[in-house]
Specification:
single chain, 226 residues, 6-stranded antiparallel beta sheet, two-stranded antiparallel sheet, WH_DNA-bd_sf
Length: 226
């Protein structure tokens, strides 16, 4: 009697299915959190959220559980709002930006002998979140972390919104402080971040020489943040 072998079935690793399910659940949870954050006026309802992310109301209730337990969202009856846990997460962003950017900023400060800073745009304002002063110069600009100014003023502010394909850096003279000169380049490629790396000095800077160095540092900062 002839023997006919059974068709070979593909071998699936034991963890494949749970891993895919966990990934899908995580993605849906993040989509839900984004949908709550995107609400422009009244807080969305469970039904609104179900329609927004393409799942059932029951699935929304399940996804809300972990988010609520971490304080990322809160329910008010059938409506859902962002929770205070989001503020805590937001408060951890700037320290991590500072730590990640410091090596590249320090290298540039020592190379050019001028104060170097990372500036982040917050709406219509620009804020210095990391500052490194050179160790070997006789004098340099003292620039404080937390310093704010309008984004349309100063090289650091104007650089954050430089369009791709446009100028690689911008320069300024006395826009924020009399006698101070600046060159800044945008930090590109980090989703949701409008930022720049800048140099500020008490002597005129040669943009054609300093600009490429600032741009390289901005690229290094972007790589460190990804």
């Amino acid at each position: 009697m002839a023997f006919t072998p059974e068709p070979t079935r593909p071998i699936r690793a034991p963890g494949d299915a749970p891993a895919k399910e966990s990934s899908l659940t995580l993605e849906r949870g993040l989509n839900l959190l984004q949908a709550v954050a995107d609400a422009e006026s009244e807080a969305p309802t469970i039904s609104d959220l179900a329609a927004a992310i393409g799942v059932s109301r029951a699935a929304v209730y399940r996804l809300l559980g972990p988010l609520q337990s971490r304080g990322l969202v809160r329910r008010e009856g059938s409506r859902v709002r962002l929770g205070l846990g989001v503020l805590w997460l937001a408060g951890r962003v700037l320290p991590q930006l500072r730590v990640a950017s410091l090596p590249a900023l320090r290298s540039l400060a020592e190379q050019v002998g001028a104060t170097v800073h990372l500036t982040v745009a917050d709406g219509g304002e620009a804020q210095a979140v990391a500052v490194v002063e050179p160790s070997w110069t006789s004098y340099h600009v003292s620039y404080r972390v937390g310093t704010r100014h309008p984004v349309q003023r100063g090289a650091a502010g104007r650089a954050v919104d430089l369009p791709p394909g446009g100028p690689r850096w911008v320069s300024s003279s006395g826009e924020l402080q009399s006698g101070a000169f600046g060159v800044a380049a945008p930090v590109r490629g980090v989703p949701g971040l409008r930022a720049s790396v800048g140099i500020v000095a008490l002597v005129p800077l040669a943009p054609e020489e300093v600009g490429p160095l600032v741009t390289e540092t901005a690229e290094a900062v972007a790589a460190a943040l990804k």
